[in-house]
Design brief:
Blueprint: H1 2-13, H2 18-40, H3 44-60, H4 67-76, H5 78-91, H6 95-111, H7 117-133, H8 143-163, H9 173-196, H10 202-217, H11 235-259, H12 270-288, H13 299-311, H14 325-351, H15 373-384, H16 390-411, H17 418-427, H18 432-459, H19 463-468, H20 470-484, H21 486-504, H22 510-532, H23 538-564, H24 572-592, H25 606-614, H26 616-626, H27 636-661, H28 675-678, H29 691-712
Helix pairs in contact: 2-3, 2-8, 2-20, 3-7, 3-8, 4-8, 5-6, 5-7, 5-8, 6-7, 6-16, 7-17, 9-10, 9-11, 9-12, 10-11, 11-14, 12-13, 12-14, 13-14, 14-29, 16-17, 16-22, 17-22, 18-21, 18-22, 20-21, 23-24, 23-25, 23-26, 23-27, 26-29, 27-29
Length: 728
C-alpha cells in the first residue's frame, strides 16, 4: 500500500513522466560513462569528468524544443565546454587566479543569456564545467582526458535524447502565436458580421472575443518560460516580438470596432469588407508559422486596403456636408487594423526566413533584418548594460558569489571545494526572498543526506557496493528526489556524491562530513550575496523600469503629435528610446514571473500596465505612415485640441507611473469605449477643414483616444467592478 501510494504521488507530480524519462536517460548515460571510464579504462579523471559532464548537461541544463533540437544544442555547445574546462584547468594553479577566472567567466556565461534565451538554459551547466576544472590538483597534462570524458558524456546524452524515450514535443511560442492568429481571425469575422448584421449571433461574437483575448494573452513574454520566449537578439526572435505586438493591436482595434456596432445593418460597409480581408490574411499568416507552411501572400490584403482607401468617406469640408463621424471612425479604425495585420504578415515572413522586398521595410521597422547577427547581438547587449537591468544584476550577483566561494574554498584548503561553489550555485536566487526559500531545503537535505551516507560508510566500506548501487542513486537523485521536493532532492544528491567519490578516492565517513561542511559554507555565501546585492530582485527593477518606460512613452506621444502638427521632425529618436526601455522592462517582467512576490507587488496588474506602454510604438508608426509629419499644419483649432489631448494623456501616463512606483495599479475594466463616442470633442471642428485634413484629424485623435482608453481601463470607476479588459 505504501509503494502504491508513493507511485500515485509521483505520477500526479509528473503526469507525462517527463521527469522520470529524463532521469532514466541521465542514469543510463552516466552509468555507462562512469563504469566504462573508471573500471574499463581505469582512469579516475575520465570517470569524474564523464559523470559530471552527464550530470551538468542532463540535469542542470534546461533546454527548449523537441528532442532533436536539444540534442543539436548539446553537441554545438561542445567547443564552449572545452574552452571552459581548459581555462579552469590552466587557472587552477593559484586560488586568486581561479577566483578571478570565476568572476569573469561567471559573469560572461550568465550575461550571455541576454542575446539568446537558449544560453540561459545552458548557463548553470557551463558554470559547473569551469568550477570542476578550476580546483586542484593542478594537472594541465590531464586536460585531454578531461575533455575526452566530457565529450563522451555529452555525445551519448545527445544521442539518448533522440533515441531513448523522447519527450513529447511541447507547445512552442510559434504554435501559440499561430493559435492566437486563428483566434483573432475568427473574432475579425465576427466583428465584420456585427457591422453588417448587428442582430446576428451576438453571443457568438462574445465567445470569439473571449477566446481571442485568452489566446493573445498567452503570447505575452512573461507568460512563457524564458527558454521559450522570443527574447533573443536574432532577426527571427525580433520578428516574432513584432508579430506579437501587431497581433495585439489587431485584436484591440477589432475590439473597438465590435464595440461600435451600428444600430442598423449596413450591407455594403467598407470597414466590414476590409475586416474580412484582414481575417483571411491573419488566418493564412498563422498557418505559415507551421513547419513547411506556405509563404504569406499580401496581394489580396493590399488590394482590399486600396479599395478601402478609395471608399473612405469624405465630406465637402465647407459646412455644406457634415461628415459621417461614425463611418469615419469605423473606416479609420479598420485601416489602422489592416496596417497592423500587414505588419503581422511581414513579421512572419522574416521569422520564417522569407526574403523581404522594398515595400516590406515599413520605414525601418524591419530594417534590422538586413544586419548581421553579431550587430544585432551587440545592440541587445548594449541595451542591457544599464544600471536598471535585472539581467545585469543577476549576472553580477552570481559571478561575485561564485568568486567569493572559490576564494573561501581555496584559502581554507577544502578537499572538495567544488561542493562549496555547487551549493552557492544551487541556493542563490534572483531575490533575497527566493534565496531564503531555497536555504531550508538545502540545509535540511544536506544534513539528512550526510547523516545517512556517513552511517552507511561506517557499515559498508567496500567501493564495489557503491558501484553496484550507482544507477539506483542516480535515479533516486534526479528522478524521485525531484518529484518528492527540494529536501529529498538535496538529500539524495548528497548520497549520490558521497557514493561516487567513495569509488574515486575512498575516505570513509569523513567524506560525508566534508560534504556537510562544504555545503553549509556555500549556503552561507549564497545567502549573504542574495541579501547584500539587489535583494529585492526583479520586482524593484520592474517598477523603476516601468515608470521610466511610461514616461518615455508619454514623450514619444507628445513628439508624435508635434510632428503631425508640423512643429517637430519625425519622432524617430523618441520611438527608439521607447524600444530601448521596452527591452529592459520586458526582461524585468520575465524575471519577475520566476520570483516569489509579496502582497505589495501583486497589487499591480502588470499585463494591463505594460500593455498601455506597448501600444505606443506600433500605434505611432502606423499613424505616421498614414498621416505624415505636417499633415495638420496650418489648422490652429485642431492644433490646440490635439495638444490639449496630448497633455491630458501625458498627465495620465505620469499618474500611472506614480502609482506603479508605489506598487498600486488596479485591474482593468471590461467594457471598451466606442470610437464615435471618443470623437465627440472634435465634432465642432469637422466642418472647418478640407476633407483630407478631417481624415487626418480623425485618425490622430482616434489614436490618442485609444491610448487614453488603454490607461482608463486600468482604473475601475468608483463603485464599479474590476474585470478583464480588452487590451492584452
Amino acid at each position: 500500500m505504501l509503494g502504491t501510494s508513493l507511485l500515485g504521488r509521483l505520477r500526479r507530480r509528473d503526469p507525462g513522466d517527463a521527469i522520470l524519462r529524463r532521469a532514466a536517460r541521465l542514469t543510463l548515460v552516466a552509468s555507462v560513462v562512469f563504469y566504462g571510464c573508471r573500471y574499463g579504462a581505469g582512469s579516475p579523471v575520465l570517470a569524474t569528468y564523464g559523470l559530471f559532464g552527464a550530470i551538468a548537461a542532463g540535469a542542470f541544463a534546461q533546454l527548449p524544443g523537441p528532442a532533436p533540437q536539444r540534442a543539436r544544442i548539446l553537441v554545438m555547445s561542445l567547443p564552449a565546454v572545452w574552452a571552459l574546462i581548459a581555462a579552469g584547468s590552466l587557472l587552477a594553479w593559484n586560488t586568486w587566479a581561479a577566483a578571478g577566472g570565476m568572476l569573469v567567466i561567471g559573469f560572461v556565461v550568465a550575461f550571455a543569456g541576454v542575446g539568446n534565451p537558449r544560453l540561459v538554459g545552458l548557463a548553470s551547466a557551463f558554470q559547473l564545467f569551469y568550477i570542476l576544472a578550476s580546483f586542484p590538483p593542478y594537472q594541465p597534462g590531464t586536460v585531454p582526458e578531461r575533455l575526452g570524458g566530457v565529450t563522451l558524456a555529452i555525445v551519448l546524452l545527445a544521442a539518448a535524447e533522440v533515441l531513448l524515450w523522447p519527450d513529447p514535443v511541447p507547445v512552442s511560442y510559434r504554435q501559440r502565436l499561430a493559435e492566437a492568429a486563428g483566434g483573432v481571425a475568427a473574432f475579425l469575422d465576427a466583428a465584420a458580421d456585427g457591422l453588417t448584421d448587428p442582430q446576428a449571433d451576438p453571443g457568438g461574437r462574445d465567445t470569439r472575443r473571449e477566446r481571442a483575448y485568452d489566446l493573445v494573452a498567452a503570447i505575452e513574454l512573461g507568460r512563457n518560460p524564458p527558454e521559450w520566449a522570443p527574447s533573443a537578439a536574432g532577426a527571427q526572435d525580433r520578428a516574432l516580438r513584432i508579430c506579437a505586438a501587431a497581433l495585439r493591436e489587431v485584436f484591440v482595434e477589432a475590439d473597438r470596432l465590435a464595440a461600435d456596432t451600428p444600430s442598423e445593418p449596413i450591407p455594403d460597409l467598407a470597414a466590414a469588407r476590409l475586416l474580412r480581408a484582414c481575417a483571411e490574411t491573419t488566418r493564412a499568416t498563422g498557418r505559415a508559422l507551421s513547419p513547411g507552411g506556405p509563404t504569406v501572400e499580401l496581394g489580396d490584403l493590399d488590394a482590399a486596403i486600396g479599395r478601402a482607401e478609395v471608399a473612405y468617406p469624405e465630406g465637402e469640408g465647407d459646412g455644406h456636408d457634415a461628415p459621417d463621424v461614425p463611418r469615419l471612425c469605423r473606416d479609420a479604425t479598420a485601416l489602422a487594423l489592416a496596417d497592423q495585420a500587414r505588419i503581422f504578415a511581414v513579421g512572419v515572413r522574416v521569422a520564417t526566413g522569407s526574403p523581404l522586398d522594398g515595400a516590406d521595410t515599413y520605414s525601418g521597422l524591419f530594417e534590422y533584418a538586413r544586419h548581421s547577427p553579431w550587430r544585432l547581438y551587440w545592440w541587445q547587449f548594449r541595451a542591457h548594460l544599464a544600471p536598471r537591468s535585472a539581467h545585469l544584476h543577476s549576472s553580477v550577483r552570481l559571478a561575485v558569489a561564485l568568486a567569493i566561494a572559490r576564494v573561501a574554498a581555496g584559502l581554507l584548503q577544502l578537499t572538495h571545494g567544488f561542493w562549496v561553489l555547487l551549493a552557492t550555485l544551487t541556493v542563490l536566487r534572483t531575490s533575497a526572498a527566493d534565496t531564503r526559500t531555497a536555504l531550508r531545503p538545502a540545509v535540511l537535505g544536506t544534513v539528512a543526506g550526510a547523516v545517512v551516507s556517513g552511517g552507511l560508510m561506517l557499515v559498508v566500506d567496500d567501493p564495489i557496493i557503491y558501484a553496484v548501487v550507482l544507477p539506483i542513486t542516480l535515479m533516486l537523485a534526479f528522478g524521485v528526489g525531484r518529484l518528492l521536493g527540494p529536501v529529498w532532492q538535496q538529500a539524495l544528491f548528497t548520497l549520490l556524491l558521497t557514493g561516487v567519490f567513495t569509488q574515486l578516492n575512498p575516505e570513509g565517513w569523513k567524506l560525508a562530513e566534508a560534504r556537510l561542511v562544504d555545503v553549509l559554507l556555500g549556503v552561507v555565501i549564497g545567502v549573504l550575496a542574495g541579501v547584500a546585492m539587489w535583494p529585492r530582485g526583479a520586482s524593484h527593477d520592474l517598477r523603476l523600469n516601468a515608470t521610466r518606460y511610461l514616461a518615455t512613452s508619454a514623450d514619444a506621444v507628445e513628439q508624435t503629435i508635434q510632428a503631425v502638427l508640423g512643429g517637430a521632425p519625425p519622432p524617430d529618436r523618441a520611438l527608439g528610446r521607447v524600444r530601448q526601455r521596452m527591452i529592459l522592462v520586458d526582461s524585468s517582467y520575465c524575471q519577475y514571473h520566476s520570483e516569489r512576490h509579496g502582497p505589495h507587488n501583486r497589487q499591480v496588474n502588470w499585463d494591463a500596465v505594460l500593455s498601455a506602454g506597448h501600444r505606443v510604438v506600433p500605434g505611432a508608426e502606423s499613424l505616421l505612415r498614414r498621416n505624415p509629419p505636417g499633415c495638420l499644419a496650418g489648422w490652429p483649432a485642431a492644433a490646440t485640441l490635439l495638444r490639449d489631448s496630448a497633455g491630458q494623456l501625458r498627465s495620465a501616463y505620469d499618474d500611472l507611473a506614480a502609482e506603479v512606483a508605489h506598487g498600486h495599479a488596479s485591474a482593468p475594466v471590461p467594457a471598451p469605449t466606442g470610437c464615435a463616442g471618443e470623437l465627440d470633442r472634435i465634432r465642432p471642428l469637422l466642418s472647418e477643414g478640407d476633407a483630407r485634413s478631417v481624415r487626418h484629424l480623425v485618425e490622430v485623435d482616434r489614436w490618442l483616444a485609444g491610448l487614453m482608453d488603454s490607461i482608463a481601463r486600468i482604473h475601475p470607476p468608483a463603485g464599479g467592478p474590476a474585470g478583464r479588459g480588452g487590451d492584452s
